[in-house]
Amino acid sequence: MLTKTPAKTPADAAPTRTGSSGFRFSYAWGRPDLPCTGPRVLLTVEALSSRIPEEIERIWKPGTGYVVRVEPLAASREPVRWSNEAKARVRRRNLMKRLQRHAPLFAHQFYEAELSNRRNYFSGL
């Protein structure tokens, strides 16, 4: 699962992902106080382990201004959608907590009034 990507130009700087998770290691310019003397990114490697790949270890030299950057690659998945019942339950609970905190004496009256005024919202729609 080790893929090697050559240095890219700014126009096509978004690398393609080949794995579902892992790490992206880049050997890139890391001195914001100095202009880059060569390409901004020399090498990009995607790997499953968090250990620096050998390709980057071979070309790494201290004091050159280039640094090793590590980005975790999260697995892409569908966002979790709440059911209408769960949304309604949480919205009602949060409303009661807010009312108890701000107006504890009249919380139940305001709660009933708010539920009747905004019936669709508190039913999870």
Structure description:
The structure is a single chain. The chain is α+β, with helices and mostly antiparallel strands. The protein has 4 helices and 4 strands, in the order βββαβααα. The protein has helices at residues 54-59, 84-102, 107-117, 119-122; strands spanning 3-6, 22-29, 41-47, 66-73. A 4-stranded antiparallel beta sheet has the order 1-3-2-4, with no helix packed on it. The longest helix has 19 residues, at 84-102. The protein is elongated. The protein starts with a strand and ends with a helix.
Notable features of this structure?
4 strands; four-stranded antiparallel beta sheet; 125 residues; elongated; 22% strand; 4 helices; single chain; alpha+beta
Overview in brief:
The protein has helices at residues 54-59, 84-102, 107-117, 119-122; strands at 3-6, 22-29, 41-47, 66-73.
Number of helices: 4
Strand content: 15-25%
- Strands of the largest sheet, in order across it? 1-3-2-4
Number of strands: 4
Shape: elongated
Helical content band: 25-40%
Rg (CA only):
26 Å
Residue runs with pLDDT of under 50 for 5 or more positions? 8-19
Cα distance spanning the termini: 44 Å
Give a short account of the largest sheet.
4 strands, antiparallel
Mean pLDDT: 81
Category by helix and strand content: alpha+beta
Instruction: Encode the helix/strand succession as letters.
Output: EEEHEHHH
SSE topology:
Blueprint: E1 3-6, E2 22-29, E3 41-47, H1 54-59, E4 66-73, H2 84-102, H3 107-117, H4 119-122
Antiparallel strand pairs: 1-3, 2-3, 2-4
Helix pairs in contact: 2-3
